[in-house]
Amino acid sequence: MMLPGDEVIKVIITAYVFAQFEVACYTALLTAAKRVGDHHAIHALEAMLAEERGMADWLLHHQPTIVGQFLHRAVLPGVEAGK
Fold it and tell me: Are 68 and 12 in contact (CB under 8 A)?
């Protein structure tokens, strides 16, 4: 169950899902570029794919810390956890 004011958790989950969506899109585009031999696109797509994989990895790695900090702040009196 999500706590009231759980926007921080929702944002990191959404960001991770979107990064994985972009990984899937760039993977499909890279497959198409390789199929038609578009070497210029291949290099650009490989770079973008690596960047998105890095972002997804970063988000997944830092999610436990961010969620933990949110939960810690949620129980402190007078502290708004989502800020």
Answer: no
